[in-house]
Design a protein that fits this description.
Number of helices: 19
Number of domains: 2
EC number: 2.4.1.-
GO molecular function: quercetin 3-O-glucosyltransferase activity; quercetin 7-O-glucosyltransferase activity
Distance between the termini: 34 Å
Largest sheet: 7 strands, parallel
Number of strands: 13
CATH superfamily of the largest domain: Glycogen Phosphorylase B
Strand order of the largest sheet: 3-2-1-4-5-6-7
CATH architecture of the largest domain: 3-Layer(aba) Sandwich
Shape: globular
Pfam families: UDPGT (PF00201)
Strand content: 5-15%
InterPro entries: UDP_glucos_trans, UDP_glycos_trans_CS
Radius of gyration: 22 Å
CATH topology of the largest domain: Rossmann fold
Enzyme class: transferase
Helix content: 40-55%
């Protein structure tokens, strides 16, 4: 695997410009929510293993949170890795989920943007032991970093943790508006195929468009913001996507026509899979692993809707009854944010009797790789989708937000590794989907999932496309550093 190979190489490796060259210093700046921080920590760790100096702008609500000690311990092994706190301007206890994400966008513009400018202006990140910044790798939803960094002569590379297909879909929104496919009308046919996304003409329906597109006014501020951010990425030095060529080739081919400097390097979490480097910011509960150890091979449905999904009380109850009525054992992650304001049945709080186990968090990558896990009921977030693909676990998708609507369609219609139950939440539908995944079409889904998992693992192995792209990215940053120092 790449990480192991890189560790061996770095012991005796010197840069092409000479062994006395100062290593690159990269500033990594994630969007301040847990899933985005997690995946960019993986990228930052790869750079650390490659000998880079890293400054990671950690959101202050995470740095002051109860799980930061775990993150700090993970990166203590890298003496050139440094955390720098930055505020998103919201109270520490703000949920940063669901409909309230809009508040986060607004607060970043007011608070985080000037903070970022001041960090660069003060030169506080450089010292006798730390070189000037070579480049900035920022979350693609924060394109303001491009202009600010340009004022200081620092190149910006944007990282998008979305699927390539979602990125391309958002890029095509102006064309959809021009063609009259957006905004939606009150009587819009949600099952109509979308015609003006090149490469996706026979794949995406109206209901599969990103959640931001479900508006009746093309001037909707949130839609305009995400589309503007997507197009603004063309002004960056380059673009990084956490996916693989074999998974999203149609979208990637179109993206390259607009972003010739594109690094497709995923699945990022897979580089660490042999080392079992946990990346969750939540407490790792071992009781669920012990419970899984007692279950038959590929018999358990793992249920997790991520850290930004918020269920209504009735939705939670319908999922619960559907799971129980399916008769399949299940492991359900029910964090506090998922049930905000919900009236939870006593049976759910106590665990679900003989058929299931309910926890407030679980080590997701480890659960998905467990021999007892046979299916994954998920919100279809990109990190979760890639993790499930990598482990060859079929999925049931119930998307909630952002790119999840696109991802769930790919899972069912393109990759054929699961069921998309988008826009429906009743106990009979849940029960039917679980039975279809774990019983009726079990062998079909397992075969498709195994085939795609093989492609994912090959891509990050020596000779694979993502492996090669990651190597190019590292070399290009070293060349940036050399250019800056001459």
């Amino acid at each position: 695997m790449y990480i192991i190979s890189r560790q061996k190489q770095e012991k005796n490796h010197s840069m092409e410009q000479g062994s006395t060259s100062v290593p690159p210093h990269v500033l990594v700046f994630p969007f301040p929510v847990q899933s985005h921080v997690n995946v960019m920590l993986n990228l930052a760790e790869i750079f650390s293993i490659s000998g880079f100096q890293i400054t990671f702008l950690i959101p202050d609500h995470i740095q002051t949170g109860p799980r930061f000690d775990q993150i700090s311990l993970r990166f203590a092994r890298y003496p050139a890795f440094y955390f720098q706190a930055i505020s998103d301007g919201l109270p520490l206890d703000h949920p940063r989920t669901g409909d309230r994400v809009k508040e986060l966008f607004d607060s970043i513009n007011v608070t985080t943007k000037p903070q970022f400018r001041n960090v660069l202006k003060s030169r506080a990140l450089s010292s006798n032991s730390r070189a000037p910044l070579t480049c900035i790798i920022a979350d693609g939803i924060m394109s303001f970093t491009i202009d600010i960094a340009q004022n200081f002569g620092i190149p910006t590379v944007l990282f998008r943790p979305f699927s390539a297909t979602c990125f391309w879909t958002l890029f095509c929104v102006p064309k959809l508006i021009q063609a009259g496919e957006l905004p939606l009308k009150e009587d819009s046919d949600m099952d109509r195929l979308v015609e003006n996304i090149p490469g996706m003409e026979r794949v995406l329906r109206v209901r599969d468009l990103p959640s931001f597109c479900r508006v009746e006014d093309a001037a909707d501020p949130q839609l305009q913001h995400v589309v503007s951010e997507t197009h603004r990425a063309t002004g960056a030095h380059s673009l990084i996507l956490n996916t693989l060529e074999d998974l999203e080739e149609p979208a990637l081919a179109r993206i390259r026509a607009n972003f010739p400097k594109l690094y497709v390097i995923g699945p990022l979490h897979g580089y660490f899979r042999p080392l079992w480097s946990p990346n969750s910011l939540n407490e790792q509960h071992r009781s669920c692993i012990e419970w899984l150890d007692d279950q038959p091979l590929k018999s358990v449905v793992f249920v997790s809707f991520g850290n930004m999904t918020v269920l209504k009380s009735q939705q939670l109850v319908e999922f619960w009854y559907g799971l129980v009525n399916s008769g399949k054992p299940f492991l359900w992650v029910v964090p506090a944010n998922l049930t905000a304001g919900c009236r939870i049945p006593t049976e759910l709080i106590e665990g679900s009797g003989k058929s299931g186990k309910v926890v407030d968090w679980a080590p997701q990558e480890e659960v998905l790789s467990h021999p007892a896990t046979g299916g994954f009921l998920t919100h279809g977030g990109w990190n979760s989708t890639l993790e499930s693909i990598y482990e060859g676990v079929p999925m049931i998708c119930w998307p909630f937000y952002a790119d999840q609507q696109v991802n769930s369609r790919l899972v069912e219609e393109v990759w054929r590794v699961g069921v998309d139950m988008k826009d429906i939440c009743d106990r009979k539908t849940v029960e039917k989907a679980v039975r279809e995944l774990m019983e009726v079409r079990r062998e079909e889904f397992l075969k498709s999932s195994k085939d795609i998992a093989r492609l994912a693992r090959k891509s990050i192995s020596e000779g694979g496309s993502s492996y090669a792209n990651l190597d190019c990215l590292i070399k290009d940053i070293k060349h940036m550093n050399y250019a800056n120092s001459t």
